[in-house]
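Researcher: For the annotation table, I need structure tokens for CbbX protein. Please keep the output clean. Sequence:
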Amino acid sequence: MNVITETKYKEENINDDTLINIQEEYKKTKIQEVLNQLDKELIGLVPVKNRIKEIAALLLIDKLRMQLNLPQANPGLHMSFTGSPGTGKTTVATKMADILYLLGYIRKGHLLTVTRDDLVGQYIGHTAPKTKEVLKRAMGGVLFIDEAYYLYKPDNERDYGSEAIEILLQVMENQRNDLVVILAGYKDKMERFYQSNPGLSSRITNHVDFPDYTAEELLEIGILMLEEQQYQLTQEGKEVLLEYIKRRMNQPHFANARSIRNAIDRARMRQANRIFNSLNRVLTKKDLVSIEAEDILKSSLFMDK
């Protein structure tokens, strides 16, 4: 095709009056159902939800461009999720896998979550088969590597994490049409990790930062967790749980929703013990479903009271 013919072909393509009902195309993908589930399952995280919607919109438009034989920008699908533990990174990764599958960017749609221990061996010749086995299981879906920065330990020359990274880099580049990789971890540690591994950084297109929850959002999360198990928190219990959350947020190893789930489990245990110690009276259904303030106040965080 000479220059004149090629130019005419491009002009005809661009001036094509083919009509596309974007709402109808969007509806057919069922992406909105996934986004609705995300809204329902996760409290807050508005910036994250908006970012996922933006990524979904870009992928949909690229799909429509492909159908009209327009040039493809080859959107990078590998992602980075940064934030504290318990901020919903794994849940969002699962929904992202659903979106990629619905749009046809991956053929299976499953999510495989791994850590360093799943990829890196402890002796020479052990890492490559471990990493390749994980990648084989992840093919056609999304590989979610939590605390990915632990793959790289520059202070240990006998560490085999760099071998896993090299294999990962090759697959991310050569088989990017059959595997999406999401690297996750604390923001500051991930930034240092990318600085030390420019090859990885260049392959990550979408960076999504997960903010910590507010105390009020964590209270709402706690209430939802209890309701899912058909428990109810009394009004005084809600006030005490909010105070517990504010105190816990200032303690070491705080993990957002994960810490609240642990607190809820312990409150249920104290409630069961309280009920067991009152067997000399008849119980009602309300007794069995109610979490009282005292079930939370017995936490060590309230020892000063």
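Researcher: And a one-line annotation?
Model: The chain has two domains: 3-210, 215-302.
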